[in-house]
Amino acid sequence: MGVRNETEVVEFVFLGFSGIPKSHLYLFLPFLAVYLVTVLGNLMIFTLIQLDSSLHTPMYYFLSHLSCLDICISSVTVPKILVNFLYQRQTISYNQCMAQMFFLISFSGTEGALLAVMAYDRYAAICKPLHYSRLMNPKGCAILAFVTWVWGLLNAALHTALSSKLRFCGVNQIHHIFCDIPPLLKMSCNDAHINKVATHIGSFFEGMAPFLFIILSYLFILCSILKIHSTTGKHKAFSTCASHLSIVIVYFGNAVLNYNRPSAGYSLEIDTLVSTMYCIIPPMLNPLIYSLRNKEVKGALKKVLESQRKVYI
């Protein structure tokens, strides 16, 4: 039984894939393929950064953290989805739901803050090149990375603590594919005013504030690029930002679609599609964007492959 009494729920049922019950086994393989591409792609980026000394720069230091985050974000949701597909039982225990929500909020909040830090790194490199080594010294980079992780953990701890106070009055069906704040608030039968206020405040500091900081950084970057006289110089300066800008668009674009939909007027199928895109697409695309668009990463990968080939010849 998923419901112990009138107020206490010990198990939730995900309804996100309820419209296609006979296709769960067919969905298992594409989800597994995407998850493997995500993990292996981000692991490749992380490993290359550690192995190649030419990538031991602030930009790639933060990229290594981004790769770790993408593996973590994907691993919070996709493995549970795969297990449910395999056993054809879309359930999750209450404690697992709280844990999943905690880590999802934590890693997502950390990634938003990290993208803002990466924008500041590009600003310092292009707008303050003479002071770059001082502004982005190893100790400073380590502190910035540490702060982003701590910020995500503290934000997640607050929201999870508040969510644990919610009561569901026997309702245990989540119209979603993973545990998150909005669907739990919809299910709650007690006063969730404090939760909603905390969610709005958290959304600003976790989403809007980093996004505005990134926009502001790129406005300064654009002004600096326009002052460069040579076309080659402009292209080189812009190319260093292109990969990061692409990831920002993918990440915040999916976040807006996932968390700013109307409360009514859209089907469960659309909701499931948007949620699926949010939890699996950005982590999968990030390593592809950096490996395909970045000459230094491609060069490092080529060197590693050539060294491995010489070993086996």
Q: Which assembly state applies to the chains in this document?
A: single chain
Physical arrangement of strands within the biggest beta sheet: 2-1-3
Q: What is the overall silhouette?
A: globular
Low-confidence segments, given as residue ranges, are: 1-6
Question: Beta fraction of the residues?
Answer: under 5%
Helix content estimate: over 70%
Average pLDDT, all residues: 84
Discrete helix count:
10
Number of strands: 3
Q: What distance lies between the first and last C-alpha atoms, to the nearest angstrom?
A: 60 Å
Query: What does the main sheet amount to?
Result: 3 strands, mixed
Describe the fold and architecture.
The protein is an all-alpha fold. It has 10 helices and 3 strands. The protein has a 3-stranded mixed beta sheet with strand order 2-1-3. Helix 1 packs parallel to helix 9. The chain is globular. The N terminus is likely disordered.
